[in-house]
UniProtKB/TrEMBL annotation:
Membrane-crossing residue ranges in chain numbering: 12-34, 46-66, 86-106, 112-134
Annotated keywords: Membrane, Transmembrane, Transmembrane helix
Name of the protein described by the UniProt record: Uncharacterized protein
Tree of life domain: Eukaryota
Amino acid sequence: MPSGHLSRQLRFVLPGAATTYWLHTPSVLARIWADAAPLARPLVGLSAFSGLLTVALFLYILLIPVIKGIPPNYRSWRQSGELSSVIPVLTVSTISGWAALCGVLGRYSGMGYVLGVIAGSGLYALAFGIMGLLPAPRVARQ
């Protein structure tokens, strides 16, 4: 029987993986990049950059205890010098990457906007579900 945390994350990983597989999202993005419509490459690039930035910032937030040696206060992130600057950038990169991905899939893939949003959401659900499976390092409170 999976743990509570694992089952919560699998609710994102399994539908995200199924959607990404059935809609062939990575190969569709590669085809859009290869066809190179005038706005397609910049939107795919923005989507990829924002997605990678989102992953990097998420991993950074997870590794703050290891890097800094102190556990951040996630509940009061606005008062934290570290988190108060990282979390807004993480939010903007997540939203802009998802919007660019859905837009490029909807406009340039032939999926249409409804399937484009489903494909983009599935890919993001898969990525966030996998990142959520990463264990957060524990640092003893001082």
